[in-house]
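User: Can you recover a sequence for this backbone? Please restate the input before giving your answer.

Assistant: Of course. Working from this structure:
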């Protein structure tokens, strides 16, 4: 984990973010770094200026997102600090962060009902959350008005006066891959439970707050029971995995403002741990924490995007679908399919690929994708994935042989032979140790990826990995 590649990424701000006192009340000035807007790259984009309808809950929720960005829930002795990402979608502001261990994804959606001011812009950038700002946010009272400015004023954008505050932080490749994997994981979630405010507070306050690695060893489960949740020893139908309950500690900040708790998760399959999402409804806002299947397992290694990265068709479709995205707060599969002329399955694969460049997120509350624009491309995520690189090497070496009928393939690596089979429903399995251990739960193995590449090439032009089929046999 510690050996993963990383690069230095610079965040440049005109000045530190701050809470300022003035004649009209307090002003929360969130400074932006370089970002992307509908007009292209901008050094310090401005997305919103106006009042927060509920200052105290908003301040607490922003602190919760910052808490996750600064935390490591696995190996907590190693510090982490990444500035949250903010996306303006025209009708809301979204603040997102990842924990340093990549196992917790936090998002605060400040909806139109939570904002009172100018029109909300479109674009994505990072916002500076520094220690003095955190201290000031803790002092925001419920009765005082709070003005929010995301980005500098127009006059300040055009001047070079004043200091530029620059932060250089290590940006692991797994952090980028985590953004890609969470949208694939969350798209498989359904609403499993909803607790009213008092029950939500009671349940969340009962959870342990300590650190440690207990969540990495034991998968805990909860099941709806009337208006609350109760623990269960096994994943019965309707249960939700609570992997490492101490990783929900950031929600403690907003409990006194909580109106409801909604819990999302995938259908129960087997007894292994699973990811889940925990959404607290606040006045005009939603704060959601998504947990990886256990504390030692970051989202970056889940492998949900590998199938889309491995296909040429998804790469081509992604260019078409990207041209149709317009910073929409809700990206509808059916609408994109109609506009692009692609099938719904191909649109999903294209969105998955775009997610590896940070262009797509998923909102479990609305069961819909949304558009953001991070300064990465899919090739960076592809180049950093060892399974994908290994699969391409197998194809290039001619290690894949499709057998008659195409349902079975043989992959020869040195003196080892692995067999990849597809059943009548299209489910694929492999005889390798990776598949025996995870059963596809962490994405396809390199052998399944390689066979998929060969099958796609065969379908497209009658070749196998660039070689005529009859030659490859």
């Amino acid at each position: 984990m510690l050996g993963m590649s990383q690069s230095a990424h610079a965040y440049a701000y005109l000045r530190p973010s701050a809470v300022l006192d003035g004649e009209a009340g307090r002003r929360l000035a969130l400074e932006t770094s370089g970002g992307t807007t509908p007009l292209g790259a901008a050094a310090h984009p401005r997305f919103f200026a106006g009042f927060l309808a509920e200052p105290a809950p908003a301040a607490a929720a922003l602190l919760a997102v910052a808490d996750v960005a600064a935390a490591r829930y696995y190996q907590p002795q190693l510090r982490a600090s990444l500035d949250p990402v903010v996306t303006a979608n025209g009708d809301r502001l979204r603040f997102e962060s990842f924990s340093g261990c990549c196992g917790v994804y936090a998002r605060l959606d400040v909806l139109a009902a939570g904002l009172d001011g100018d029109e909300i812009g479109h674009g994505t950038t990072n916002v500076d959350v520094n220690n003095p700002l955190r201290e000031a946010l803790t002092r925001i009272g419920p009765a005082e008005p709070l003005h929010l400015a995301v980005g500098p004023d127009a006059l300040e954008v055009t001047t070079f006066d004043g200091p530029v505050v620059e932060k250089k932080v290590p940006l692991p490749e797994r952090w980028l891959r985590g953004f890609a994997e969470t949208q694939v994981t969350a798209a498989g979630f359904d609403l499993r439970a909803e607790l009213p405010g008092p029950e939500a507070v009671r349940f969340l306050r009962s959870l342990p707050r300590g650190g440690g690695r207990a969540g990495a060893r034991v998968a805990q489960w909860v099941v709806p029971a009337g208006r609350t949740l109760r623990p269960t020893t096994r994943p019965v139908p309707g249960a939700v995995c609570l992997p490492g309950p101490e990783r929900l500690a950031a929600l403690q900040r907003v409990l006194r403002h909580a109106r409801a708790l909604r819990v999302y998760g995938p259908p129960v399959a087997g007894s292994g741990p699973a990811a889940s999402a925990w959404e607290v409804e606040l006045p005009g806002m939603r704060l959601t924490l998504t947990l990886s299947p256990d504390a030692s397992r970051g989202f970056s290694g889940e492998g949900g995007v590998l199938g889309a990265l491995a296909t040429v068709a998804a790469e081509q479709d992604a260019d078409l679908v990207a041209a149709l995205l317009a910073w929409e707060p809700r990206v509808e599969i059916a609408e994109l399919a109609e506009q692009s002329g692609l099938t719904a399955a191909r649109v999903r694969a294209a969105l998955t690929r775009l997610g590896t460049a940070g262009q797509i997120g998923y909102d479990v509350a609305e069961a819909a994708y949304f558009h953001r624009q991070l300064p990465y491309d899919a090739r960076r995520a592809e180049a950093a994935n060892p399974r994908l690189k290994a699969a391409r090497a197998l194809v290039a070496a001619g290690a894949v042989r499709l057998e008659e009928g195409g349902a079975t393939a043989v992959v020869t690596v040195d003196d080892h032979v692995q067999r990849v089979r597809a059943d009548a429903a299209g489910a694929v399995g492999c005889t390798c140790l990776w598949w025996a251990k995870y059963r596809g739960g962490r994405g396809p193995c390199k052998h399944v990826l390689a066979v998929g590449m060969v099958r796609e090439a065969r379908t497209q032009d009658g070749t196998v990995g660039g070689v005529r089929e009859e030659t490859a046999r």
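That completes the design. The radius of gyration is 23 Å.
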